[in-house]
Structure formats: C-alpha cells, structure tokens
Amino acid sequence: MAEDGPNDQTKNATEAEAEAQMAAALNEAQSSLNEIKESVDSASPPDVPDFGAADGAALPTGLEMLGDVDLHVMVELGRTEMVVEDVLKLASGSVVELDKLAGDPVDVYVNQRLVARGEVLVLNDNFCIRISEIVANLQEEAQQATQEQAQTV
What per-residue confidence (pLDDT) applies to 67? Predict the structure, then answer.
C-alpha cells in the first residue's frame, strides 16, 4: 500500500484552497447580483420632460398634423418620345411636339402620384393651373394614413 506523501498532502491542500477561493468568489458574485437586483427593483422611472405644447395649445390631430409638410408638385403638359440623336440636336428655341393638344387637361402629380387634372391659365404673366378634376379620394386616404401612423406610435 502506498502512503500519502508530502506532495499528495500539498496537492490536497492546494485543491482545498482553490475550492475555498472559488466558493468565496461565487458568494461575492451572488451578493453583488442581489445588490443589483435590489437597486433595479427600487429604482424609480426616469424623469421624462413633457413634450406637449408649452403654451397649453392643443396639439394638432388628423389632417392638421400634415398642414406644414412639404410636397413635390409636378404638372405634366404632355409627353413625347425622341431618339438620342434628336435630343442632342435640341437648342434654345427648339420646339418639341407633345401628345396633347392645346386646351387639353394637364395632369397634376404630387410626390409622383396623379392626384388631379386641370387647365392651364395665365394670371399676371404667370402660368397657373385651375383644378377641374380630383382623380383620387385624397382626404380619406390621408385620414387613413394618419390613423395607421397613430396606431403604430
């Protein structure tokens, strides 16, 4: 039979010491975790500033929220197809024939979407468009989009 020598006793003492250090570290980590949990549980919600109207005025709702939104409006007088050779020949004073006659309604696009048709007028030396037909039911679509936006917020 072999007896435990001094090396075996040192080895057992070292293992016992390592286990004791690990147990102490584990207890310390558990204690820190408990402190963190207590501080989270007892924490009050952060102070959030009131982003409402400072002067007490009511915030706009529905379509009123969209009142100051910039939109890209384009009026199409007509279209044509040209080959590159003809485009390169264009110069100041060139005339390009379109597919619509003078007096035909022009299309009004808002953000690349056809919304209305109208006629071209001249008022105080400026070109103008008199809207004669609304193509889509824009008000209902805008209200629906506003409601969908409110639901996501």
Answer: 79
How far apart CA 130 and CA 121 sit, in angstroms, is 7
CATH topology of domain 71-152: Surface presentation of antigens (SPOA) (2.30.330)
* SS3 label, residue 71: coil
Return the exposure string of 64-88: e unless at least 16 CB atoms fall within 10 Å of the residue's CB, then b: eeeeeeeeeeeeeeeeeeeeeeeee
DSSP 66: G
Instruction: Return the domain boundaries, the chain.
Output: 7-38, 71-152
Nearest CA-CA partner of 105 in 126, 120, 121: 120
Mean pLDDT (10-residue bins), the chain, 153 residues: 60 79 85 80 71 62 77 91 93 91 88 89 90 79 74 71
Size of the chain in residues: 153
pLDDT score recorded for residue 149:
74
CA 22/CA 35 separation, integer angstroms: 20
Distance CA(94)–CA(51), nearest Å, equals 56
